[in-house]
Amino acid sequence: MRQTIRDRHGHVLGTIEQQPLTGRSLARDAHGVIVAVYDERSDTTRDARGVLIGRGNRLAAFLVPW
Keywords in UniProt for this one (predicted)? Predict the structure, then answer.
């Protein structure tokens, strides 16, 4: 399943793609580049380089501009 994240003007910020077989969810920016991965089994979110960001699903934080 894929969920498109848009800003208040309707511009695509990115997508969150769930992979049920692996138990992972991928956050991709508007260009399709993976920016973060959430692993359901370990309940952790990592950035694109594999650096631990925190516990829980924090994927949306990678797509919303500051």
Answer: Plasmid
